[in-house]
Amino acid sequence: MIEDVTHTDVNPLASPKGTHKPCIRCGERSRFMCKKCRAVFYCSKAHRDEDLRVLHSDVCDLYAFLKDSIRFVPGQDERDRLEKQRVIKKTEILKTAKSLAQKSLFQNHPDDAINQLSVAIHFAHELYGNNSVLIIPIHAMCVEALVKRGRMDQATQQLSKAEWILLNEDDCPDLIKADFYKNEGFLNMCKKEYKSALTSYANETFFSTAAFHPV
Ligand SMILES: [Zn+2]
Ligand SMILES: [Zn+2]
């Protein structure tokens, strides 16, 4: 799919208080936007092209819907219907970003996965709140991608975020716990902390067994 994306200075009047939309990739001040959906902004052609390649061309139409649907609609029923549609589109962006990230990890393209996962985390927070157990698998995928890039400090941070949710949520499914411990084990192995890794993998085995053979 060829997108109509051209060099566009973002009009400061388009956003309140003269603020600028940040680049979706790096958070820097943007100088470009996707002209098709007009909802996603970039600091540079490099970041625009990269985002189009790894994710945006698959979700541009969904962003366009989200952008267009922010308008006043008379009638509570119609507003509820529109809000339901918005949730469906956000869920589709989340699912697409997550499954593309899975593919990137499988193909050993951790940089692409990191970019796809940052979008997945953004929409997971919007849809489920900041402390939902459903965000744990996305943080776990981030751990894998960051470890593969040798960014151990950031991987540890992602694992801590997942762990914080895990410890504060009583009702976490065993499969999600198993996924967490698998990635904790992977991180510990790469940090050469073999004793901790053994504990992680033991926990992984315990929770995957519990998931498939509930008592
Ligand atoms: Zn950027
Ligand atoms: Zn777009």
UniProtKB/TrEMBL annotation:
Which keywords appear in this protein's UniProt record, sorted alphabetically?
Metal-binding, Zinc, Zinc-finger
Domain MYND-type per the UniProt entry, residue ranges: 23-60
Q: Which InterPro entries match?
A: Zinc_finger_MYND_domain (IPR053248), Znf_MYND (IPR002893)
Coiled-coil boundaries: none
Superkingdom of the source? Eukaryota
| PANTHER family linked | ZINC FINGER MYND DOMAIN-CONTAINING PROTEIN 12
**What name goes with this protein?**
Zinc finger MYND domain-containing protein 12
Q: Which organism is it from?
A: Aplysia californica
> Source organism lineage?
Eukaryota, Metazoa, Spiralia, Lophotrochozoa, Mollusca
